[in-house]
Amino acid sequence: MRELRFGAASLLLGLMTTTASCGDDSTPGNTGLGTSSTGGNGPGVGGSGGSGAAGVGGAGAGAGVGGSGAGGAGVGGSGVGGDGVGGAGVGGAGVGGAGVGGSGVGGAGVGGAGVGGSGVGGSGVGGSGVGGAGGDGVGGTGGGGVGCIAPLAECDADPVTVCETDTSNNPEHCGACGHSCLGGACVAGTCQPIVLATQQSNPWTIALDDTHVYWTNAGVASSPSGSVARIPKMGGDVQVLAAGQTYPFIGIAVAGGWVYWTNYSGGTVRRVPVAGGAEETLASGPMNPKGITVTDTHVYWANNDGTIMRHPVTGPLQQFEVAFSAPGTKPYGVALGNGGLFWAVASADVGVIEYLPLGGGPPSRIAELQDLPLYVATQGDHVYWVNTGAGPSIVRAPMAGGPTEVLATSASAGAYGLAVAGPDVYFTNHQQGTITRTSSSPPAAEQVILTGQGKPRLIAADDLAIYWVNQTSGTVMKLAR
Predict the structure, then answer these.
(1) Per-residue pLDDT averaged across 256-285, rounded?
(2) Which residues pair with 428 in a beta bridge?
(3) Domain residue spans of the chain
(4) Position 462 pLDDT exceeds 60
(5) Measuring CA to CA, which residue among 88, 106, 87 is closest to residue 96?
(6) pTM reported for the whole predicted model
(7) Which DSSP letter does residue 26 get?
(8) How confident is the model at residue 234, as a pLDDT?
(9) How is domain 196-311+456-480 classified at the CATH fold level?
(10) pLDDT, mean over the chain
């Protein structure tokens, strides 16, 4: 909280050389009221209100100037063709007068409320409230400024209408001017989630391109009941791109006009054109493929047997054999960055984050002693991952190696997927049914932004929204950022 220090407020009133009619200074507890000047068209000047009193500007065909009230209210008079100037209220309220054809200037309320005056055909400057509720003055071309009291705001830049937008329920200006809910509702200044798709069978993974959301339905592990589907980001019909898949529950990627995924139980890596078409099998065999990612030239994935594989977008299969620090360790999620491939070794006792140059060479260890890390993501010069063990957390480290930084922790197990987007990291908790946001760099503060989700799994983000799948409710979801 800011510390505010004030001296005594004073208002200097300059009088015009024309004839004026002025109110007397009032004694404490009384009111000084400026009289109107009619014949001389001079200013009406409010008297100085004593403690607890009000100084009220008189109405003149020239300028109306509000008096100063210590502990009371200074109210600007109305000037037709002239200026209306708000008085200074110390501990009270300063309210700007109305200037028709002139300018309306809001008074200053120290410890109270300052409300901007209105100027029609002129300029308006909002008053300030320090220690109380300060009005926002918005100047218009040829129109007056106005102080909007939240949740009202001036969003349409129209000099005729003022404070026309209720940001508590406007889906195009939700919580602030210009913040669109992208088709969702706005409740109490907060965008609500949008259901893009329903009745999906065990949805698990998710990926994005510029126009669509892609996901896999894992189906049942022991049968070819899984599928790959997509839907426009702005909503529409679900398009099934591939059916009859065998438990595609870990990896999906979109690149170069293709959707790639891994069938964990089926032991295959496959792809299909993003708009639909013939499916292709890139690799098959006695393996359990997990996370997958794609460059312009190669597809990379992790195998449950401890190997990292790659396949040219066109050409024969190639394999990187990776030696880990302990037998039986299993790579899981993968991500590209820093000219190489990062992956998580999903083990509670040997949890590590590894890096391998794409051109080949020995792997290097970025972090160790992690607690069951699953998915990884990269942004800038850092790699991020989610620890899903007994002490769930969101952690990052420099891609080139260095100290780890914990960005978020969770009071209970269940952290699962993560997405990094600019200043934010979003992660799911499938046991608590929550979506949480934290900062992508320290110092970070967690904020649960959604509850009541049906076992949310993987999550993705673009510049405007986040997207995720709810496993038990069978839904694909979206929320404006």
Answers:
(1) 96
(2) 435
(3) 143-192, 196-311+456-480, 329-450
(4) yes
(5) 106
(6) 0.71
(7) P
(8) 97
(9) Neuraminidase (2.120.10)
(10) 76
All residues at 6 or more sequence positions from 354 whose CB lies less than 8 Å from its CB, including other chains: 322, 324, 331, 342, 343, 344, 345, 363, 364, 365, 366
DSSP helix/strand/coil, 119: strand
Sign of CA dihedral 323, 335, 478, 417: positive
Q: Show the beta-strand stretches assigned E in 154-297.
A: 165-166, 186-187, 190-191, 194-197, 203-208, 212-217, 226-232, 239-245, 252-255, 258-263, 268-273, 280-284, 289-294
Are the CB atoms for 208 and 458 separated by under 8 Å?
A: no
Query: Could you report the per-residue pLDDT of 67-107, keeping only the tens digit for each?
Result: 443 333 344 344 333 344 434 433 334 443 443 333 444 44
Those residues with Cβ within 8 angstroms of residue 7's Cβ, 6 or more apart along the chain or in another chain: none
For 329-450, CATH gives 2.120.10.30
Q: For residues 89 and 30, what is the distance between their CA atoms, to the nearest angstrom?
A: 15
The string of pLDDT tens digits covering residues 404-419 is 999 999 767 899 999 9
Using DSSP's 3-state secondary structure scheme, residue 427 falls into: strand
DSSP-derived secondary structure for 168-208: TT-TTSSSSTT---TTS-EETTEEPPEEEE-S-SSEEEEEE
Give residues with Cβ within 8 angstroms of 470, minimum separation 6: 203, 453, 454, 455, 456, 457, 476, 477
1: CB partners within 8 A, 6+ apart: none
- Name the nearest CA neighbour of 193 among 182, 203, 206: 182
What is the side-by-side order of every strand in the sheet holding 119-120? Answer: 79-80, 99-100, 119-120
* Residue with the two structure tokens 């959604």: 450
In angstroms, how far apart are the furthest CA atoms of the chain? 102
What is the per-residue pLDDT across 154-174, written as a single tens digit (0 to 9) for each? 999 898 899 999 999 999 999
Fold matches, 196-311+456-480 and 329-450 = yes
Peptide bond into 151 cis (omega under 30): yes
pLDDT of residue 108: 41
Q: Where are the beta strands (DSSP E) in 433-474?
A: 434-439, 447-450, 456-461, 465-470
